User: What shape does this take?
Amino acid sequence: MKKVLLELFFVALPKILSGAGAASVNLILLRYFEPEQFGMYSLCITGILLADGILGSAFDMGVLRLAPAYRATDEKRSLAIEKAAVILKLIVTLTVGLLLVLFAQPLSRSLFQQEGTAYLLYLSSCAALGMLLFRSVLVHLQVEGKFALYGSLDLLHNVLKFGGIALILAFSHVSLGAVLTFFALGPACVSVLYLGACRKKFLGQGSASVRAAGELLGFVKWSLLIFSLAALISRLDIFLLTIQADMREVGIFSGGQAFAVIPDLIGGYLAVVLNPRIIPYCREGRFFAFFWRFQLASLVGCVVIYLTVILSMETTLSRLLPASFALSADVFLILLLGALSGLVMFPLVISFLMFVRPKFLFTMDCISAPIVIILYFYAIQHHGAVGAAWVTSASRIIRGVIAHVAAWKWARRAPEIFRERVMQPVGTTPRVFTNSSSKW
Assistant: This one.
């Protein structure tokens, strides 16, 4: 337990500072930007997070599943898996970037409802690429258990990103392009610095990465489908607001979402430390006991957080927000319900289901997607940003409860499931998702 707490400290400290930095930047930008401009900024950040949530989460999950199994007996193969993930991320991101270059003008007019905004798409693409590379660096350090270095690099990334934005706010004209530039430079600089320092280790794998890419893709294909659908559903609110309403409503919604996202950040911090322990705990028969204790503590903590916010922060937030963003306080309180539900579910429930029953999550999202879209169209048409917030929170809570019930059921059988479906002798090729020989 002491080791877990120490590792959590190394991971959580820079990420807590990151969350505080993001909240502070958003609060300041709310005073510099009108709702329309803040809505454009939020769309760009959403695109960056979508790229990380789809490509980053899927490939990183595959690396965390495969690389640790080989690390003790075949370090080259473990590193080849990690290198393959980086190469595949680059290929997909550069392909999407090329398409953006070809269609930037009409796409930017549709998204931002203004002319001359194509440069925002270019900067967002660069920021997404930098973030994907940086996540690969952090995953490598997770696999090696170097959490002190993990925290140091994450801290450096935050200093470069938010420090640069702070300099702009203090000494220069604040613009969307300038802010997004540092969202790209922060992760890119740290990634290049680390990969350059370890170039011999990563560049010496040769053709092994071709085999590793096939192995990784075999394991990741379900993850890509699941994370793509889940990420798109989670961000339907802001994109459907863009389609159905004006950029002002997008800005109002984003003003509340800027603070409601904090529980999601906390869930991500916890997942960094908890995810690598799921398989070992299942193998040892300790997972279910750990699972219910952690979930109970999370639920109690989230109830306390929400009551505290209701009693003490509603008036404070209303005072902090500019008059043009007054409705964002209501949006925040609504979105916080769904965000806290996500905090209860994400660190263990979603990750565990991804390992043992990925088709369950995909099926649940396929069923819920059309229902949620219909509800969004109705709610946005009649209630704008507030209506979108209610649909977002309600859908997250319902999907979270269903996922939790399923995870509780299968967590009881975790050792049996992992012996049958997941655990393979170290040094052999792990079973991948297939339609014929596996229920994955």
